[in-house]
Design brief:
It comes from Leclercia tamurae. With 140 residues, the chain is mostly helical. The chain has helices at 5-15, 29-37, 45-57, 60-66, 70-84, 92-115, 122-139. Helix 2 crosses helix 3, helix 3 (45-57) crosses helix 5 (70-84) and helix 6 packs antiparallel against helix 7 (122-139). It is extended and about 55 Å long.
Length: 140
């Protein structure tokens, strides 16, 4: 499980009876960072949270057999970085069409915020910047 202490307490309360004995192992952001530093890797806070989420998403049967160790945490960081840097090839025409559709959707979201008297969401601004970077790459 992954979440805040409050969220996890609710999940545990819903999953187990009050008298059921449990063993709870906890990974914090600091613990993930320390485990990685011991292997000369230096994740960002965001990467550490992604690793924590991956640990929390691990099926119980898997971590009961394999455990969650410093080595497995470092493997998760390596895998995350490889996935983040993975590149694919797509036809330029396809990417152009998808970007046009996505840009229209972002404009729609910005318009909804404006109509509701709210500022444009940060996520919309960041996504629009991603679209601009992709368009520049296509034009190059």
């Amino acid at each position: 499980m992954y979440g805040t202490r409050e969220e996890l307490c609710v999940k545990l309360e819903n999953m187990f009876t009050a008298c059921e004995p449990l063993t709870l192992l906890v990974w914090t952001t600091d613990a993930v960072l320390a485990a990685c530093r011991k292997h000369n890797q230096f994740p960002t806070e965001e990467e550490a949270r992604r690793i924590m989420k991956a640990i929390g998403d691990t099926h119980m049967a898997v971590y009961q057999i394999k455990g969650v160790t410093q080595v497995s945490v470092n493997d998760m960081l390596t895998q995350h970085r490889e996935e983040a840097n993975r590149q694919v090839s797509v036809p330029a025409a396809l990417l152009t069409r998808v970007l046009q559709d996505y840009e229209c959707e972002l404009e729609h979201r910005a318009g909804q915020a404006w109509a509701a008297g709210r500022p444009e969401p940060q996520a919309v601004q960041e996504a629009r910047n991603d679209v601009y970077r992709l368009k520049e790459a296509l034009a190059a």
